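The following block was generated as part of the benchmark described in Methods. Ligand: pyridoxal-5'-phosphate.
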Amino acid sequence: MQRLELPLFEQCGVEVWCKRDDLIDPMLSGNKWRKLKYALLAAAKDNIHTLLSFGGAYSNHLHALAAAGARFGFATRAIVRGEASSASNATLSQCRQWGMQLTFVDRQTYRQRHDPAWLASLAEPGLMLLAEGGSGPLALDGVGELVAEVPFSPDLWVLPCASGGTLTGLLKVKRPDEKVLGIAVIKGGTALRDTVTNLWPGAACDPHWRIALEHHDGGYARFSSELWQWLQTVTMQTGLPLEPVYSGKALWGLCRELAAGRIQRGSRIVFVHTGGMQGLAGLKERGLC
Ligand SMILES: Cc1ncc(COP(=O)(O)O)c(C=O)c1O
């Protein structure tokens, strides 16, 4: 836990602590480790030798899966949305070094990743298929474990939200009165609420959570120079490493919520740093930061 001190927090009368899940491990960190943990345990128990999943060319999930495969003795394969030329980018080079076998597909083929018939055609004995982003049914319990690692009961949890799996895992386990605020890092996340309640129907009965949709700053993996400059300043002020796709955008969203007066004075807030720092290398490579 790291206490974050920013002038805005003092002005708004809130106490903010960061749950540093980015520090779980240099390669297998944040929500990626949390989501993979029980899938890996199930794979080991069921004598699975190969893990196959899906992702984009800069996917944190594929990066973590490749690292896990190398560390725990599973072969790994990935179906990657994009051109074969991206095999040499920072994320996928590292995946290949860890032995991950990559297959590149166009957008149309990639869209089939939820289609049971297509998934069945990929099945092989000893192979486990993992959902995109690791957001399968086994992911929620792993994410929920972070709650017990925080030594107090916060008034509010804040975290980035893309597919909704991490938020759902947290909702399942947090204490009834604790509030949860997900910051959507994607544009047009209106379906996210339903995604969460589909993943865990109990969420529909909990009035203490919401997803803020207006801090996406242009959409997934997009960000303004204002956001980028803001991150540099906050990192200098707090010592917290941030990237603009997930953790940085979510902290930015929290600050905008505070500035808009949407968070109660006196709140003790836990901001969950969900990792993803490997993505910075890809952004730099593309000249985006
Ligand atoms: C580093 C990081 N943080 C947060 C998220 C968002 O998590 P979720 O997709 O479970 O909402 C992701 C994407 O999975 C991620 O890679």
